[in-house]
Each structure stands twice: as C-alpha cells, then as structure tokens.
Amino acid sequence: MHPVLSPRGGTGLNRQFQEPVMLLNDKSVIITGASRGIGRAAALECARQGANVVIGYSGSASSRPAVEELIAEIEALGRRACAVGAPAGDPDTGDRLVEAAVEHFGGVDVFVNNAGICPFHAFLDMPKELYLETVNTNLNGAFFAVQAAANQMKRQGRGGAIIAVSSISALVGGGMQTHYTPTKAGLLSLMQSCAIALGPYGIRCNALLPGTIETDINKDDLADVEKREYMASRTPLGRLGRPDDLAGPIVFLASDMSQYVTGASLLVDGGMFVNLQ
Ligand SMILES: NC(=O)C1=CN([C@@H]2O[C@H](COP(=O)(O)OP(=O)(O)OC[C@H]3O[C@@H](n4cnc5c(N)ncnc54)[C@H](OP(=O)(O)O)[C@@H]3O)[C@@H](O)[C@H]2O)C=CC1
Ligand SMILES: C[C@H](O)[C@@H]1OC(=O)[C@H](O)[C@@H]1O
Question: What is the set of domains in the chain, with CATH numbers?
C-alpha cells in the first residue's frame, strides 16, 4: 500500500490510529477500458485507495483472462470488483456499467471514461468505417456513459467525480491520427461543458491528458526504434510514460484532494508538450 498525503496535510498517517489514510475508502468507481494499460493501473490504484471497482472492457473473449486476473488482484487488496464486457461505442453501455455499480456496490461515486482506440491511418484514404468506429468508441459512447453516470450521481445526491481520459492529442495534431485527435479534443470539451452542467449537483468533471504512454495501443507504432527514441528524447523527464504514471493523477481527480477542481485539464506527459524549442 502506498503511503499518501492526508487530505489535511501531513505525513499520510492518521495520527490517532497510525494507519495510512485511503483517498477513496468505500467509494464505488467505474473505469472503462480497465482490462489493460492505463485503465488497469488506475483500477488497481483505486482499489489500493479503498475503492470497489467496476471494470469495463470490450467483452472480447480474449480479454477475459486479463479481467479475471485483475479481479483477483483487487480482491487480494481486500476490495471488491466486477466486470462488464460491452462495446464502448454502444449508447447503452453506460447504463449497463451504472447498473452493475448500483447492484454490486450500491451506487456510483467516480466514473472514469478511459476506453479508447487509436488505429493509426493516413487521412486522404481514411476508410469511413474506421473513422466512425473511432469516433463512436472514443467519443459518442463516452457522451452517453458520462450522462448515465451523472444521472445516477444526481439521484444519489452526494455529488461525484467524472474523469475523461483525453490526451495531449487534444492540444496537438497527428498526421496519422486525424480521426483520433478530434475525439480527444471532444472529450476535453465534454468535461468543460459537463463541469458547468453538473456543478450544481456537486459533480466535478475533469480531463486527464496523457502524453505518450507505452501500452498495447501504440505497441506497433513504438516498435519503430527510431520513433520510440525520438519520442523519449522529446520528453524532458527522459522517458516515455508508463500506465502507473497516470494512476496517481486519476486518484487525485477522483478524490476529495481535488474537491475544488472542476472543468480542468491535467496534462501528464513528462513535459513533452512544452518542449518545443
Ligand atoms: N497510451 C498512450 O500513449 C495514450 C493513451 N491515451 C488514452 O488512454 C486510454 C487508454 O489507452 P491505453 O491504456 O493506452 O490503451 P490499451 O490499448 O492498453 O487499453 C485499451 C482499453 O480500452 C478497452 N477497449 C478498447 N476498445 C474498446 C471497445 N470498443 N469497447 C470497450 N472497451 C474497449 C480495452 O478493452 P479490451 O482489453 O477488451 O480490448 C482496454 O481495456 C485511451 O482512451 C487512449 O486514447 C491518451 C493519451 C496517450
Ligand atoms: C497511441 C499514441 O501513441 C498516443 O495516443 C495519444 O493520445 C498520444 O498523443 C499518443 O499519440
């Protein structure tokens, strides 16, 4: 278990009981795309911080072993987990995730919209199907899932936190990502507007903007050693990101540590974005 800063400052130890303070104790957290990569690291850190977790994934049979393993790891931490396999682009998937959280954990406190795809492709011959699949998976499904989570939080009447995993790509272009970058800018914009729409219910909405993080999503792209080294050399902290690098920032935005943060964007990129010259 990671010692953490106490919400009141200090060492992270509750002085009376000398136990680590957990930032998400008994919270019910939904994370989409949690079978692998950033979502998986976030699910584990949320569990370490005391949360029970609904694991969203595509529903593909090949993902099931990874999901079972994650459930076992969360249970070994003394927390509970369940999984919902359903396509992120389906407008009803958000309802299914929320239903699972209500049934198993009594409600929804945190919703992390993380599922996403980035099938690199040139612009001029972009197949219509690939464009539509990318926008549906990354953005359209997210809209309905955020709406479902927000309605549940409103019904509960105790506020909540919504985090969209956007990207540095919301701020910069990518010649092979013309279908992808608009979805990430869209998620950032969705969080800004939802922060206004949902603030009156105590529901905070923020965007997380990872830089280049080594996961399955870019395994092929970064297999090009020259590109990989170039990307690392553009990063002031001297290396590409790891899924774990995003887990802390996600917990921060999910927890009361960020109780006055809404409509914000948190860039977690090792400094890549500011490294122009
Ligand atoms: N890695 C990076 O450099 C960056 C990533 N991001 C964003 O972070 C998020 C997570 O990416 P990352 O961890 O790298 O990716 P991974 O490829 O490692 O994981 C993707 C996750 O999304 C799920 N997923 C994929 N397609 C669908 C679908 N159609 N329906 C439901 N779930 C689906 C996968 O489930 P399954 O296992 O079932 O396929 C998996 O859990 C994405 O939104 C990505 O755009 C943002 C900036 C940088
Ligand atoms: C998948 C890419 O490597 C990754 O995705 C993003 O959102 C980043 O901007 C990188 O391009």
Answer: 16-267 (3.40.50.720)
Residue 10: pLDDT over 90 = no
112 CA → ligand 2 middle, Å:
18
Nearest CA to ligand 2 atom 11: 212
CB of 116 shorter than 6 A to ligand 1: yes
- Ligand 1 pocket, residue 50 CB under 6 Å: no
Amino acid at 198: L
Q: Going by C-beta distance under 8 Å and a sequence separation of 6 or more, which residues neighbour residue 64?
A: 85
Minimum-distance ligand 1 atom for the alpha carbon of 184: 45
| Ligand 1 contact, 38 CB (< 6 A) | yes
* Integer angstrom CA distances of residue 176 from 116, 156, 158, 206, 226: 16, 43, 42, 27, 17
Mean pLDDT of 266-277: 96
CA dihedral sign of residues 35, 36, 38, 42: positive
Give the pTM: 0.95
- Ligand 1, atom 39, lies closest to the CA of 58
| DSSP classification of residue 22 | P
pLDDT at residue 259 in the model: 98
Torsional class of 96: left (φ above 0), alpha (ψ -120 to 50), beta (otherwise): alpha
What average pLDDT does the segment 86-101 reach? 98
CA dihedral 268, 24, 184, 139 (to 10 degrees): 170
Assess: ipTM above 0.95.
yes
Q: Which ligand is nearest to the CA of 177?
A: 2
Q: Determine whether the shortest distance from the Cβ of 20 to ligand 1 is under 6 A.
A: no
Q: Among residues 101, 84, 74, which one has the least CA distance to residue 32?
A: 84
